Amino acid sequence: MKKTAESKSATKADKGRFFRCMFKIGVIGFGGGTALIPVIEEEVTKDNHFVSKEAYDKDVVAAAITPGALPVEIAAGLGKEVGGLSGMLSAALLMALPGCLFTFIILAVLSGVNRMVLTITDCLSIGITAFICTLLIAYVTSTYRDAAADGKRGSRIAAIAVIAGVFVLTCGKNLFKILNLPGSPLFTLDTLSVLGLAFFGIFFTRGRRDVRKIAVACAVGLAFIFTKGRLHHIFGFVMAALGAWGLVPEVKRARSEIEEPKTIFHKWLKEMAVWGGLILTALILTLIVTGKNPVFVLKGLLSSLMSFGGGDAYLSVAEGLFVQTGTISAGHFYGNLIPVSNLLPGSILCKVLSGTGYYVGYGVRHSLFDAGLLWFAGFLVAVAGSGFTFGTVRLIYESLSELDVFQCLSKWIRPIVAGLLLNICLSLISQNLSTGVTLGISSGAAAAITAGILTINLAMLYRRKAKSGVMIVFSAVASMLTAGSLVLL
After folding, report:
1. What pLDDT does residue 20 have?
2. HSE-CB of 212 using CA atoms within 13 angstroms
3. Rounded to an integer, what distance in angstroms lies between the CA atom of residue 459 and that of residue 451?
4. pTM here?
């Protein structure tokens, strides 16, 4: 009996550490989205061993191909692995909470027009962003080393080719922005398009070296990359059709290995009941505050389901659903909410949706209590919308993961993500340059501070084997001392 009690206690302790990790990542999650993939991996697979790398990669794939807040979706998948449905819910909420809570606090402070909080946050964000870049570079390095571990020269070359290829496909816009180049790049693909290309190539060829199919895949893929507008979408549909054509025979061949649809549906219903509970709570809160039909909740859920393409793409969706319909004024949206969302950690989707709820609630009776209730409603809708889509795709992916094509995909997903992260690194550097201008210091000074902190972090990581906590503290202090001093000059 004693042994059993000790085992249960240890399990609870592990869950407690896991949930604290999710909250911690939410606090330091500058850059949001894809940038947090290596940050989360560092905590859950290396430092604490909550899940295996293989299980983590499955969550990354499912989150990357679904709309919603990617860090929240990954947290939901990890939470389910560690603590079942309750762990799924708690992890998702804890990942989203810090950014949304900071948004509420700063929006409330902005009512008193106190800009000092924003200045301090801007200074801190430069250092924390440099720290995130450190982990991104470490992820790319680790991916190459894993590919080279089998000693085969071909594996190393293939990994480098995939990483470099994905980077070239995605980096155009950020390079033009950082270098202040005129015009626009010949092509720039987003994360979803890159993953779509990977899925298409693997599904259509079934992961085999069929020369004819490889030639067709290359031709269609190149047409997708270099075309724009309607033609680009047409080739996207062609890729989807050919990919499905290649996948269906695989599914039929391995039908006995795939989980029964009835079993999958029962699992899906249980998960959807959890997310449905959050949506119901948000509906009730909205009715209590506004006394009207809870249109805000429905718009918020729709915006989450439409949020393909990352944070910038979500802003256009939110603008159409909330600003153009009068849910929130353009002044509040562009003057306060967007600047605050861009400088705080966490998912843009969660911060914008909870912040919109804040203004909807505040507009009813100019009460901070009402604003808080609808802020909370927006927070719940953001998490539920992300969990709903992720849970659906994750269950389907999990049931098919033993197929040969998905085994092939799992082999290449890390180099693909590594290439994406190199582009995210550029995006974060560009963000730091813009933050420097906002603070009143030159973009060159912001670049120098970023480069200095990044270099020292890399030295600490590879020479001293420094832990993430040490690098975070150093990055925050260094950016406050350097950027803060320049602001005061």
Report:
1. 94
2. 0
3. 12
4. 0.83
